[in-house]
Amino acid sequence: MINLAYKDIKYSFTKFIITAISVGILFGIVIIMIGVYRGMIFDAKELVKDIDAQLWVVQQNTLGPFAETSKVHEDLKDQISYQDGVKYAEGITFQNMQMKNSYGAFKVMLVGYDPLGKISPINPNKIIAGRPLKKEHYEIVVSAKTHYKLGEKIKLGRDYYTVVGITKNTVSNGGDYLMFVSLKDAQILQFTYSNERIRSDEARGIKGGNPHLVNAVIAKLKSGYNAKKVAREIENSTHKTVFTKDEEIKLLLQRVIKKSSKQIGMFTAILIIVSIVIIALIIYTMTLEKIKEISILKLIGISNFKIIKMIMQETLILGILAFISGNIFAHFMADKFPKRVVLEANDAWTLFIVIIVASAFASVFGVYKVLKTDPSEAIGG
Amino acid sequence: MNDIAIKVENLVKKFGKGENEVTVINGANFTLKKGEFAALVAPSGAGKTTLLMMIGCVLEPTSGRIEIGGEVVYDNRWTIKDDRALRRKKLGFIFQAHYLIPFLDVEENVSLLPYENGEKPEVVKPRVKELLDYLGVGDKLKNMPSELSGGQNQRVAIARALANNPSIILADEPTAALDAKRSVDVVKLLRKIAKEKEVTIIMVTHDERLLPYCDKVLTIVDKKIEVKEHLEGVII
Asked: All domains of chain B, ordered by start, with CATH?
């Protein structure tokens, strides 16, 4: 028996493969866009997950520390520590900074924490070289992607910090690299002013700044306590706003990255539609190129079923090859993106189903053309 | 035993409607027996291809009657359910150009129709080889059409038309793309096929040099068919 699709593909193999790869690159872009979307969600949750605090105590009536600015006094941690159900409480700061080294300029989030405290924002599994902070001054732990090396001195503000640890896959909620310094150093960097500013403030009658602030107090609970319940009790007794870990993650997803992720989601949806239209056009064009052969086949008595089978098989093979090449392209390119691209197998398989359905839909145009082709077109040149 | 291969009675074909109506064939009548080789001649636009398409059940006549191999296929309306099944079982087509399927090799081009008719490879393969040998292209079994000359391709096209053992071959200017010598070769071959395999052949042609090879000449005159039989000087 003769499989017309196989024979046709074999005959124009190079052209078919190039077409499939071209469509595949388009699908690859779709896969990467989905990966970027997943990456945004992943990054948004990553730091909160690494810190692994059950409660986030922030300035009253704010959505801090990520969705809104929040400043609370450092000694709030003592007050929180005494709350019923709280095991530990620590102050933490977050500060965005622009850095520059021989690899170029980049944005980082500087996280300040107490190296002698009970809660560390550094996931120990993510330290790939060196160690966490041990001293209260002039040590720094950096993300590997900043390209700083162990022992390297980094100037922040007026002081130099020595790199004592390197982490991998540590990012801020916005996907920026992280650097960790002690809480005392972070407070100096964030809340103290330059000498000129202090003199200027004094001339205006403003008496000094308060460096003993943090952006949030984070807490871990004793076992058996309900985070939500403890959070509401703290809110009532301290006049602060308290979020549980899940609420903080929800805030990040809904307030911080919602519009960006929607934007990417819409762009991805449009890309999928464009891909389907392109596949439909390719199949239609491929059918038009064979219209003479199709009219001859119909004229000599070959059934519509056999001709339609050829069109549909070619479409499906094109879709499958495009899917495979798209995945190869996406996996090859994903690491080259500056921010995290999360390629999930479930997304790929969902897209595969979409491609197969879309290919079948796209082949309808070709099939319609087959059905409409007049066999008499074969006669008369 | 009925040896009538094609019987056409009062066949009419009109195109368009109202003021734009054009009558191309108006009451055509002729009969061809099994194994007869007939030429269909007429000036361009006189309706040769239209007549061929109506006999081939590709184009619906306006009225009249067509009988193919004893089966009435049209009697003021189609009387057959599946025109394509009729074509693949009883008819063979040869065109101006060879119109072989470019992505199939010679063997596949010729065996396509028998396979479509449900025949098994063990039956089809030897027959196709025999047919191609008979037509002098038996050594080109695995060649693609693009690797053959015009004459060789036309022979393969003839083999394709014969592969389903048709009782009728409709040939639409099969020599139009060939030079004079090759044209004569092909027409001689068609005559040989008609006689040896008892296949009725209608061949549309403009080339009067080919008429002596035919048993009958059907000429479209005033939208009707004039039949000349037993031509003087017929070459057998």
From this structure: 4-229 (3.40.50.300)
